[in-house]
Structures are given as structure tokens and as C-alpha cells.
Design brief:
17% strand; 8 helices; 9 strands; single chain; 9-stranded mixed β-sheet; alpha/beta; Carbamate kinase
Amino acid sequence: MDHPVYRRVLLKLSGESLMGDAVSGIDQSVVDGIAIEIRDVAALGVQLGIVVGGGNIFRGLAASGEGMDRTTADYMGMLATVINSLALQSALEQLGVSVRVQTAVEMRQIAESFIQRRAIRHLEKGRVVIFAAGTGNPYFTTDTAATLRAVEIRADILLKATKVDGVYDRDPVIHASAVMYNKINYDEVLSSNLKVMDAAAIALCRDNAMPLIVFNLLKTGNIRRVICGESVGTAVGG
């Protein structure tokens, strides 16, 4: 039987991970598959917080590059993360998982406002907590939001689920000879400008000694493997 090596985990999912092979939007079968993996991890007794991006629906940075006001664009991106969070909540609830969505932007009709102590209490009661709307502030990515929430809930580790196996010395999609790191420290990531997470997120991890593992979400069972201590992806820390 699998035994988790982490008690409390923050899982970062990209918005793109929810759209499958589509150009944009939400592929319900993909969401259902991710929900099953999360249910199985929660069944191990792991306290699980989740941050979902919104890039499958709207990208604030891209829109601002086309002339939209950056602050407005970023708030629209925050709303996209709320849509994704509600979709994941629904899929989890249909599997019998107890879930709460907390948002950094108040919208009482559909979700709780983020309150650190309440979030921790939900986790202690075995509920999955999905943190939506980023940090609630423009100019900050959902990677930074994930790191912030991981620190706030005192997670044992931050897990970033991606479309590649881990952290590479260069883009493996473009460079077939790219080499993956098994382990790397925060300063190396920053100095080499590796596109793991944005620099603010990596610096926040470093300053708060928050360990990070980057792994491939597309391989079924990887979330469980990582949480049970198998050598999957790239460990970032130190």
C-alpha cells in the first residue's frame, strides 16, 4: 500500500491542463481524470490545497500585450481561474470528495473569500481547498499565488504539474537534446533564467524554504507517485 511522505501539499495546475487537445476552454473528460487522481491522493489522508491557472480561458499578460489595460486584463484572468476552480470543484464533488473554493476576490454567491485560518481548518477536516483568483492583485501570476498559498497554509511541499517531465536546461519542446535536472537549487533556476515558474515565485520559495517538485501531469498516477515519495520530475530547493 502507498504511504504519503507529505502531510500537507499545495498542487499547482495550469489552466491549459484542463483543455486537453482543444485550443481553449475546458475538456470535461480531462477535468474528470484529474479529479480522480486528486480523489485517490486525498483518500491517502493527504491535506491538499490546489491553485488552478486560467490560461485556457484568458491570459491577462497576452491581452495587455495587445493593448488592453494590464490591470483590467489581469482581473479578467483572475475570473478565468474562478471558472476553472468551479469546474474542478464540481468534478470532485461528483466523486464524493469534500471541497471548498476560496477566492482572493470576494464573490460570496459562489465561493468563500480566502481566509488563511479557515483554509487551514478545512484542510485539517479533510477537505480539498481550491484557491482561486490568484493573489487578488494584478501583475502577479498564478505561480506566485500558488507559492504564496503554500507558504500561508504551511504546506510541506509545492508541486507544479506541467506538460513536461521536469526542469530542463532549455525548452525540450524546441530542443531535442535538452537535459532534465533531477535536482536543482533556487539560485541556479534564477541565474540560468529557467522557465520553471516566474522569478517572483522562485524567490518566494527560496526565501521561505518551500521545496518544489516539477513533474508531468500527463502521466496518469504521477500526482500519487510524487506524494508517495517516488523519484518523479525535478526537485527544486536548497
